[in-house]
Amino acid sequence: MGIGRNLRKRVTMFRKLYDWTLRWAASRHADKALAVVSFVESSVFPVPAEVLFLPMVLSRPDRAMRYAMIASVASVLGGIAGWMIGFYGFDLIARPILEFYGKVDEFEALKAQTGDGAILVMLVTSGLAHLPPMKVVTILSGVIAFDLKLFILSAVVARGAKFFLLAWALRRYGAAIVEVIERRFKIIAIGGVAVLGLAWVWLKYL
Q1: Residues 114, 140: contact at Cβ < 8 Å?
Q2: What is the pTM for the complete model shown?
Q3: Distance between CA 74 and CA 96 in Å, rounded?
Q4: 187: how many CB neighbours lie within 10 A of its CB?
Q5: Which run of H or E residues covers position 66?
Q6: 44 phi, psi to nearest 5 deg
Q7: Burial of 112 (0-12, 13-18, 19+ CB in 10 A)
Q8: Cβ neighbours of 157 (radius 10 Å)
């Protein structure tokens, strides 16, 4: 019963956070809100930046690329913050965050099977399709001291690709393309993993 009540409370809290985030899309401070949500999503916040990004682009397609730039830059900076949390303050900061979101077991499972190659793959898949959640990967990258320069490069590529492709597609096709985009990003993420896998094999054995 206690577990059920805690789960319902958590779901209710996430729903309120989602609704609160969405309301910022219509605010005159939408640009700033997008930057903040994109930043904190990469390390501590449970609501993805797309919740703000999609309605903002649909309402102002002329600003699509501006919004993509804001979201990309803020998301990469947030990822660096997540890396710093994992590297410098895991027990003090990161573990309580993961416990709060119920991600400790997922984190430990990833940590047990993670090397540099796996981290690079997860940075691409989480950046494109939230598989696994971005905050888990950024913190884990810091915990295992994954190379920060490569971390930043992969975050720039993955997050930039997602937001700029979204911006282009939404500006060109409008709301009708949203569902298709969400499905296709998972395919793109899998394709990215395949390319990275081939590159890793080539660098290691050829």
Answers
A1: yes
A2: 0.72
A3: 23
A4: 11
A5: helix 64-88
A6: -140, -25
A7: exposed
A8: 16
pLDDT value of position 179: 64
173-196 pLDDT, tens digit each: 877 666 665 565 555 555 555 555
Phi/psi of residue 30, each to 5°? Answer: -60, -40
Which tokens go with 16? 């309120």
Residue at 131: amino acid letter: L
Please tell me the distance from the alpha carbon of residue 151 to that of residue 59, in angstroms, as a whole number: 33
Cis ω on the peptide bond leading into residue 96 (within 30° of 0)?
no
CB 171 within 8 A of CB 64: yes
At what angle are helices 50-59 and 30-41 packed, to 10 degrees? 150
What does the angle CA 53 – CA 187 – CA 76 come to, to the nearest 5 degrees? 40
Handedness of CA 47, 42, 136, 163 (dihedral sign): positive
Where in the sequence is the domain holding 179, given as residue range(s)? 2-205
| CA 152 – CA 79 distance, rounded (Å) | 8
Counting the structural domains of the chain, the total is 1
